[in-house]
Design goal:
Layout: E1 6-10, H1 17-30, E2 34-41, H2 50-79, E3 84-89, H3 92-102, E4 106-112, H4 121-129, E5 138-141, H5 147-155
Parallel strand pairs: 1-2, 1-4, 2-3, 4-5
Helix pairs in contact: 1-2, 1-5
Length: 158
């Protein structure tokens, strides 16, 4: 049984996010696939300050929802498709791997590398340290590509 493949992008605060969303949205559109935008809220367990923790958690969730909505609109403008948006809570790498294991339609994790000497936190973690734990391929888009070059890469092998 064939089902629509999905591309997963992690929504964070890095500059590379724009590149990852552009590639994944364009690629999903060109392959008639889907796009999932995932935000992971990290939290510290501070039971003695539970009321403060609850306020911080609510603010973090509201901020994650706002970012996901903004990036969802950008992805829609690129692909004409509304992406799925998901919020998880916990350790970033663990939640990403858990979510990929939950949604069997996800076929690719799309990350973008920084144009700097350091590839960025997600690339370092998921394409490096935790890469053996991922059940799907990780696509790393090089930093420094133009918008036109990203579109060209995303449209190859249609």
């Amino acid at each position: 049984m064939m089902h629509r493949s999905k591309f997963l992008v992690i929504v964070d605060d890095t500059d590379e996010l724009k590149t990852a969303v552009q590639f994944a949205a364009q690629r999903a559109s060109n392959t008639k696939g889907g796009l999932v935008l995932l935000s992971v809220i990290e939290y510290a367990d501070t039971q003695q300050w539970k009321s403060v923790e609850d306020i911080i958690h609510q603010e973090a969730r509201a901020e994650a929802e706002k970012k996901l909505q903004e990036w969802s609109e950008i992805a829609f403008n690129i692909s004409g498709q509304t992406p799925e948006i998901v919020i998880k809570e916990g350790v970033v790498s663990e939640e990403i791997i858990n979510y990929i294991n939950e949604d069997k339609k996800i076929r690719f994790l799309v990350l973008a590398a920084s144009g700097e000497d350091n590839p960025g936190p997600l690339v370092s973690l998921l394409a490096g340290q935790r890469s053996g734990k991922l059940p799907i391929p990780t696509v790393v888009i090089p930093g420094g590509l133009t918008s036109e070059e990203i579109d060209d890469l995303a449209s190859r092998a249609q």
